[in-house]
Amino acid sequence: MKKYLILCFVVLFISFQTGAQETPEQLFSLGVEAYSARQYADAMRYFSTIIESGYASGEVYYNMGNTAYKQHNIPLAILYYEKARLLIPGDEDLLFNLELAQSRTVDKIEPLPLLFYERWWNSFLIFLPPGGWAILSLGVFALSAVLFLVYRFISGMTLRKVGFYGFLTGMVFFLLTVVLSVASQQQLTAHKHAIVFAPSATAKSSPADDSIDIFVVHEGTKVEITEHVGEWVRVKLGNGSVGWLKSKAIEVI
């Protein structure tokens, strides 16, 4: 009987604890309220809890970046703005805040200029968030299928022509959206970037402490990771400079 009562108490306690836990939506609302009240430590705690629970989104990352910026933690703000940009790449407020945070970093690195077709292609990729092109491609495919059925089964000549040429046009757009969907996903996974968190870090010519110093970067600078060797990572700056940094000096986006 005693064991039974203890078991019931444990079950009720666990149930109470589970029911008392806030949902991600509730935590997000609490975080926004805390941010509006300038209680930035509380806001950071609420948003961090959401991320640790595996419910992160572009909006959560964006608000984490805003909160970190208000706490004057520029590298952390840039890290979360960059995370948000992977999920909501065309958000104007996000891009403005990211640029504002970057203006407060020590390093002013001018990126290599892109060719016109690279700029054109990138503008297409960020037109929709990741997964958006995949959803659009499914919609275009469904519409093309309907137009094909119109061409195949409707007897009127005018409607058959509309169905036929609409189907061909739809398939062209379908293939284009599939290519953009694949390219968008590859852009997320093919290149791994990071933000420098060390106040300053010296890039070496090789993964060794006694190798030649190449350049120095400071907190908040974005780098591209191209190789790992032990505790070292080979990084590339936006201006094309390449060197080796200790992995503890950076945080991966």
Q: What are its keywords?
A:
253 residues; alpha+beta; Serine Threonine Protein Phosphatase 5, Tetratricopeptide repeat; SH3 type barrels; five-stranded antiparallel beta sheet; two-stranded antiparallel ribbon; 7 strands; 58% helix; globular
Task: Lay out the secondary structure.
Layout: H1 2-20, H2 24-36, H3 40-52, H4 58-70, H5 74-87, H6 92-102, H7 116-125, H8 132-153, H9 157-189, E1 192-196, E2 200-204, E3 213-218, E4 222-229, E5 232-236, E6 242-246, E7 250-252
In one word, what is the shape? globular
Assigned CATH superfamily of the largest domain: Tetratricopeptide repeat domain
**What do we call the CATH topology of the largest domain?**
Serine Threonine Protein Phosphatase 5, Tetratricopeptide repeat
Strand content: 5-15%
Number of domains in the coordinates? 3
The count of helical stretches stands at 9
Q: Which CATH C-level class of the largest domain is it?
A: Mainly Alpha
DSSP E strands, number? 7
Q: What oligomeric state do the depicted chains represent?
A: single chain
| Helical coverage, percent range | 55-70%
Structural class: alpha+beta
Biggest beta sheet attributes: 5 strands, antiparallel
Structure, explained:
With 253 residues, this protein is an alpha+beta fold. The chain has three domains: 2-102, Tetratricopeptide repeat domain (Serine Threonine Protein Phosphatase 5, Tetratricopeptide repeat, Alpha Horseshoe); 117-189; 192-252, Roll (SH3 type barrels), CATH 2.30.30. It has nine helices and seven strands, in the order αααααααααβββββββ. It has helices at residues 2-20, 24-36, 40-52, 58-70, 74-87, 92-102, 116-125, 132-153, 157-189; strands at 192-196, 200-204, 213-218, 222-229, 232-236, 242-246, 250-252. The strands form two sheets. Strands 6-5-4-1-7 form a five-stranded antiparallel sheet. A two-stranded antiparallel ribbon has the order 2-3. Helix 2 (24-36) packs antiparallel against helix 3 (40-52) and helix 8 (132-153) runs antiparallel to helix 9 (157-189). The radius of gyration is 25 Å and the shape is globular. Mean pLDDT is 85; it is low at 1-20.
